[in-house]
Amino acid sequence: xxxxxxxxxxxxxxxxxxxxxxxxxxxxxxxxxxxxxxxxxxxxxxxxxxxxxxxxxxxxxxxxxxxxxxxxxxxxxxxxxxxxxxxxxxxxxxxxxxxxxxxxxxxxxxxxxxxxxxxxxxxxxxxxxxxxxxxxxxxxxxxxxxxxxxxxxxxxxxxxxxxxxxxxxxxxxxxxxxxxxxxxxxxxxxxxxxxxxxxxxxxxxxxxxxxxxxxxxxxxxxxxxxxxxxxxxxxxxxxxxxxxxxxxxxxxxxxxxxxxxxxxxxxxxxxxxxxxxxxxxxxxxxxxxxxxxxxxxxxxxxxxxxxxxxxxxxxxxxxxxxxxxxxx
Length: 328
Ligand SMILES: NC(=O)c1ccc[n+]([C@@H]2O[C@H](COP(=O)([O-])OP(=O)(O)OC[C@H]3O[C@@H](n4cnc5c(N)ncnc54)[C@H](OP(=O)(O)O)[C@@H]3O)[C@@H](O)[C@H]2O)c1
Fold this sequence. Notes:
Elements: E1 2-8, E2 17-23, E3 31-40, H1 43-50, E4 65-72, E5 84-87, E6 99-103, E7 108-109, H2 116-136, E8 144-147, H3 153-164, E9 168-173, H4 176-184, E10 189-192, H5 201-207, E11 213-218, H6 225-229, E12 232-240, E13 263-266, H7 276-291, E14 299-304, H8 308-316, E15 323-327
Parallel strand pairs: 8-9, 8-11, 9-10, 11-12, 12-13, 14-15
Antiparallel strand pairs: 1-2, 3-4, 3-6, 3-15, 4-5, 5-7
This protein binds NADP nicotinamide-adenine-dinucleotide phosphate.
NADP nicotinamide-adenine-dinucleotide phosphate binds next to helix 1, helix 2, helix 3 and helix 8.
């Protein structure tokens, strides 16, 4: 069977994403044929396109999508034709496609109360928010946390969920419009960060009576790291989990003995979804948060799948808020 999918042959700009007609094989043992209904756009897709996160080339693109099972391979009992499922990896990078063959072991059944677009907009970002808030640092009632890119895909889910957990949320954003959006989505104190000069640490100290926050969640990296370290309280936690502005600098660990002895970690989704059991437990926690209304998925941009290069341009230029989906 033929389908349409993006292929990438060399790292570079959005123009390196090539829309092609490709062959889809019949599903093998432990596999199903999926017809995608919605695909999640993640900033990390642009890192893989540019080579910041290396992957073998040529390759497909994307590791988050939702779809319907169209055929099952030999021996597959867990799923049947018509089931709705999603995934956040554990597959070849081929989410930017109309149809694909997928490994059953990495597929997550989608509950009835979450539609396909909301699922594609929240599976990867929401499971990331789940492990960051509930595990990497366990947010408690009364904590104050700092979330960068608070109006972004992961940021909006984190702010809403942390507020529901009883935390006070301080967030950074680049525009007043994003500040208003973040505020409507759980961020108590959005700070609009200027491109030049001091950014947010002074304001964070003011908002916390000089103490600093219990945890900083830093997905921006190069441009925010130094002030993130200056925003954390005594023996607080600083988590790096992204590099939107470039990699954070090397940390002089001995020097942190003179700056409040913070706990520092670089967290990756792969290290918090190490088995089907672990991934499903995190997905179930996310689904429960959505069902209770603690997390309201914000699908703010929709593009036709074949316009994925434009979606890449927009997320890289910081023109998006909330989540973005690609529709086949
Ligand atoms: N480690 C993990 O497990 C994991 C998993 C998923 C995502 N992530 C990370 O989480 C972050 C958010 O991912 P997302 O897909 O939801 O993206 P997103 O937050 O929707 O988009 C990225 C945002 O980062 C901010 N930003 C700051 N400096 C930037 C720069 N120089 N260039 C571009 N953007 C900049 C922008 O918000 P402002 O304009 O408001 O500054 C932009 O909207 C990314 O860094 C991603 O790599 C990590």
